[in-house]
Amino acid sequence: MTYIKGYSCTICGKFYETKAEMVLCPDCKDKGILEIEFDYEKIKTVFSKEVLKDNKDYSIWRYLPLLPVEEKYTKGSLRVGWTPLLESKNNELYQIKKLHFKDDGLNPTLSLKDRASVIACVKALENNNRTIACASTGNAASSLAGNAAKMGLKTVIFVPKRAPIGKLTQLLVFGANVIKVDGDYKKAFSLSKKAIEHFGWYNRNAAINPNLIEGKKTVALEIAEQLDFDVPDWVVVSVGDGCTIGGVYKGFYDLLQLNMIKKIPKILGVQALGCDPFYQAFINDKPLEETDEFTIADSIAVGIPRNPVKGLNAVKKSKGSYLVVSDEEIMKAMKLLAESEGIFAEPAASAAFAGFIKARSENLIKEEETVTVIITGNGLKDTKNALTILEEPVLLEDDLEELIRYFKKEKRG
Amino acid sequence: MTYIKGYSCTICGKFYETKAEMVLCPDCKDKGILEIEFDYEKIKTVFSKEVLKDNKDYSIWRYLPLLPVEEKYTKGSLRVGWTPLLESKNNELYQIKKLHFKDDGLNPTLSLKDRASVIACVKALENNNRTIACASTGNAASSLAGNAAKMGLKTVIFVPKRAPIGKLTQLLVFGANVIKVDGDYKKAFSLSKKAIEHFGWYNRNAAINPNLIEGKKTVALEIAEQLDFDVPDWVVVSVGDGCTIGGVYKGFYDLLQLNMIKKIPKILGVQALGCDPFYQAFINDKPLEETDEFTIADSIAVGIPRNPVKGLNAVKKSKGSYLVVSDEEIMKAMKLLAESEGIFAEPAASAAFAGFIKARSENLIKEEETVTVIITGNGLKDTKNALTILEEPVLLEDDLEELIRYFKKEKRG
Questions:
Q1: Left (φ > 0), alpha (ψ -120 to 50) or beta: where does B21 sit?
Q2: CATH number corresponding to B130-200
Q3: What is the pLDDT of residues B151-183, one digit of tens each?
Q4: Which chain B residues touch A342 with a CB distance below 8 Å?
Q5: Which of A10, A223, A281, B348 could covalently link to A288 via disulfide, CB atoms 3.0 to 4.6 Å apart?
Q6: Is the pLDDT of residue B413 over 60?
Q7: What are the chain B neighbours of A153 within 8 Å (beta carbons)?
Q8: Higher model confidence: residue B188 or residue A260?
Q9: Mean pLDDT for the stretch of residues A210-220
Q10: Which residues have C-beta within 8 Å of that of residue B42, sequence separation ≥ 6?
């Protein structure tokens, strides 16, 4: 059984009391993205810190009472979640009381998206649906393809014409049925929508499907549990379409309702300077407007975010903030993160760390505060950009004297 | 404290009773690779299935009494180990009683090598050594660079001239000091040896350092614990220099000495047809001879394995076997593994699965037996080879009718 009470519309606010799966608000149609509401009083009877202590399932399924899925189909999945929470030893360098990194690049397909994809797969099985579809070229698509492969489901992925083959490798190898649409992302999305309706496939277009944010929220549940429910003052995460940051808020919100934490951390949403619709909306206090998509951080290059309400609410309700970082700051942060923390993050994930550095330099985050930075994807997802900041190694003869001279020069340099 | 009793030489068999770190047998010199021997009776007083049940440290450090390191320096490491053990649901397809995959591609730098590298880093810290060096272009190097970065250690990596920049990305981003040697791997190794002696750096050249196999053995400890100590009939692993397979054997050997398992699984070592010195030595029952290195599975393309004794003993003592697979079989296995199990493995790791398939077709592994295949590295380590077996997606207009026609044709095809 699930502990869902019903669905509320993020636009009109109407509450639908039902356990039957809903996707969009019948009144608000396409814009009427729904939020799942849980029966926290009932959840309290089966879920607590003590229950977690005895739970040996170190995956997102340890939080089953807080998820919109039945246990039955969760058994055959990839092992998603319970990624490392690593404490930095470089507090002095960053001038911060305590800093942790949540390395979600170590999920099965190397991104946080697995938390949503595995939920989509379970929902598809619950609905007796053998095919899942989405429009994406990035982590959502490869994640869906990998999780679906493990669970015996077919996937159809719609990609824009320009999608480079390199980016498609991971999803093609997982056996996804990839349809390249002669046009841009909007065209790919449009055909995916028509096809999903026509064929009755399960829909993993993230923002629209309210179940997916519930999967993503497990990253917050884990951060809390891994810190023994003493949550940090700030959680920093990069923002594209607004679903991940929405999930982060929802996870902490759940725990607060259950009296398992004392506060919701302030959430810092980080966007790329070249694609910053949330930042613009936040600082100007106006609705989201479409922006360009000029950034190397392709996983957060979303000019028309499809989850504006949840993405803005996460920051507003947590009393956090939005800020922007340049591509140069992102790449510098990527290098610093790798060489000082041993975490190789993709550009979009490095943006969160760049945001933390900026927030410290502007004293938005204070020295006496504690912080967790979420790393949303692994660096091997995109080595092309990393290469641009790396120096070619020196070439030496097989000669010890030459090597000794080289190191002497290095030291002086 | 550690539970080391001493070191025995894999060549002359001499036992050195000491807790002080040793690297090579003083009598046998360069060939005298040592094996660490533990005091199992003492270990039994602190380590058992019950102790493990209460241990919440889900990393290789949960096996600390079986490792050659002190606890002190293990605290600040990356979280290595406790990778997923996934049960296949495709028993019928492979005609096998039970099949598991140990996905070691989800270690922090995406390969099993992290199990050895993190031990090397701790040993360096114990020895008050701030720099670690090795000769390698592959997973050992990037793994060392990542683990050392987290622990505040410097790394010097010697690579042959031909090492492509793509392959170096991961280690360069972790801030390794990369020295390109004007020559082949042997030249790089030779300069690394001279430099390590001259500068007094810690040596992570895998075969020579007996601590590293102790790190690698944790993969076997985890397989056993994740299966509730009911170990499989077979464990399948790909073989390059012989260290990993040596570690797999050592892990099960330890558990047998501690009466925690009832048998050591038969170990199947898989080599590439174009580079098969262990296979040749095994089937012809003669000493290892140098072979060519013609295979796409670069992580196991080792023409002169540096751990011949341990690599052969693992198979002989476990009553297992060696076999070879072609590059074509490797790539087919990679695709099958990804699309039917949701695991994207690099070619060397896919070789193990190809070996399992071959062993089933030859009935070396029987239908009524149970098997665990170790996946030693993630597919994103090498997407170039994966691309060669993937088909370019079809290009369609943003038109539902065309899509419907496409799927009809696919079904007929």
A1: beta
A2: 3.40.50.1100
A3: 999 999 998 887 777 778 999 999 999 999 998
A4: 78, 108-109, 146-151, 174
A5: A281
A6: no
A7: none
A8: A260
A9: 97
A10: B3
Beta bridge partners of B48: none
CB contact under 8 Å between B338 and A394, yes or no, is no
A371 touches chain B (CB under 8 A): no
* Contact between A344 and B109 using a beta-carbon 8 Å cutoff: yes
Q: Which of B150, B184, B228, B335 to mutate to test the interface with A (most CBs of A within 10 A)?
A: B150
Closest in B146, B165, B181 to A344, CB measured: B146
Chain A, nearest residue to B89 by Cα:
A76
- A289-294 long-range contacts, Cβ below 8 Å, gap at least 24? none
Measuring CA to CA, how many Å separate A196 from each of A115, A133, A149, A242, B404? Answer: 22, 7, 19, 23, 12
The whole-model pTM stands at: 0.96
Using an 8 Å CB-CB cutoff, list chain B residues near A103.
Answer: 108
CB of A81 within 8 Å of a chain B CB? The answer is: no
Task: Answer whether residue A226 shows pLDDT above 60.
Answer: yes
Residue with tokens 């003052």: A233
* CATH of segment(s) B85-111+212-387: 3.40.50.1100
Pick A85-110+212-387's CATH classification: 3.40.50.2000, 3.40.50.920, 3.40.50.1100, 3.90.650.10: 3.40.50.1100
Q: What is the nearest CA distance from A247 to chain B, expressed in angstroms?
A: 24
What 8-state DSSP symbol labels residue B261? S
Please give the CATH topology (third level) of the domain spanning A114-205: Rossmann fold (3.40.50)
Q: Are strands B98-103 and B131-135 parallel, antiparallel or unpaired?
A: unpaired
Q: What is the pLDDT of residue A93?
A: 93
